[in-house]
């Protein structure tokens, strides 16, 4: 499976995907990393791994639709079949979501459907949650929604700060994202409505 990863910054989840894909036995290959922000750390990570990069700067497009078209064109010119959003901080248009329907996943730093949107760690602390975590899900038009591929939970500890909790969740993200991509690339799941069906290997 030829994968394109969309980023906006640090790219630590991208790194987890690159590290997993470095194993020849991994069923997906990262063929392109696209950032909407120039010169971010994630682009350097891709270059170091020998993966092609592109910057599609949203500031150079007059609207979201034009920007999203440029991103899709860039991905398709590199033969991308499947998209992973990894800290991509742009809302995408419904046209973009439709184009990549069931071919695009995102990682979100909360146990969805709890805490869609931003500031998830602070909100989990404010609510007194004892468990928090991350979710990999197929992308639908409504932000941070769509069929859930996998989730990982971490404990919220009494002395946690937003930062200490974010670090613990991030560790879980880095394990979860490659695992979920592997499931998809091995065609072990199918989507039915908003649910994911795990197929048995005997089928
Ligand atoms: C991660 O917490 C991810 O869940 C969220 O944005 C952050 C990106 O971090 N969507 P990185 O760029 O992968 O290091």
TrEMBL record:
Q: What are the GO MF terms of this UniProt record?
A: phosphoribosylglycinamide formyltransferase activity
This protein's GO cellular component annotations are: cytosol
Catalytic reaction(s) noted: N(1)-(5-phospho-beta-D-ribosyl)glycinamide + (6R)-10-formyltetrahydrofolate = N(2)-formyl-N(1)-(5-phospho-beta-D-ribosyl)glycinamide + (6S)-5,6,7,8-tetrahydrofolate + H(+)
Which positions are annotated as binding (6R)-10-formyltetrahydrofolate? 64, 89-92, 106
| CDD domains (UniProt xref) | FMT_core_GART
Q: Where are the transmembrane segments?
A: none
Enzyme class, first EC level, given as a word: transferase
The record, for Pfam families, names: Formyl_trans_N
Q: What is its EC number?
A: 2.1.2.2
Which residues are annotated as site, described as Raises pKa of active site His?
A: 144
Keywords of this entry: Purine biosynthesis, Transferase
Active-site residue list: 108
UniProt-listed InterPro entries: Formyl_transf_N (IPR002376), Formyl_transf_N_sf (IPR036477), GART (IPR004607)
Record's function text: Catalyzes the transfer of a formyl group from 10-formyltetrahydrofolate to 5-phospho-ribosyl-glycinamide (GAR), producing 5-phospho-ribosyl-N-formylglycinamide (FGAR) and tetrahydrofolate.
What protein name is recorded for this chain? Phosphoribosylglycinamide formyltransferase
């Amino acid at each position: 499976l030829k994968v394109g990863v969309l980023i906006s910054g640090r790219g630590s989840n991208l790194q987890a995907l690159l590290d997993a894909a470095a194993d020849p036995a991994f069923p997906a290959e990262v063929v392109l990393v696209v950032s909407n922000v120039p010169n971010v750390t994630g682009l350097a990570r891709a270059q170091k791994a020998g993966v092609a990069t592109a910057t599609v700067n949203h500031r150079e497009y007059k609207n979201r639709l034009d920007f999203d078209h440029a991103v899709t064109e860039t991905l398709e010119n590199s033969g991308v079949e499947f998209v992973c959003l990894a800290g991509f901080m742009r809302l995408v248009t419904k046209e973009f979501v439709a184009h990549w329907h069931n071919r695009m996943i995102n990682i979100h730093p909360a146990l969805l459907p709890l805490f869609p949107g931003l500031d998830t760690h602070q909100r989990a602390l404010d609510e007194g949650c004892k468990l928090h975590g991350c979710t990999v899900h197929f992308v639908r038009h409504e932000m941070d929604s769509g069929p859930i591929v996998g989730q990982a939970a971490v404990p919220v500890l009494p002395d946690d700060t937003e930062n200490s909790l974010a670090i613990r969740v991030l560790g879980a993200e880095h394990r979860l994202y490659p695992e979920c991509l592997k499931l998809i690339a091995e065609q072990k799941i199918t989507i039915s409505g908003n649910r994911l069906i795990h197929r048995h290997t005997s089928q």
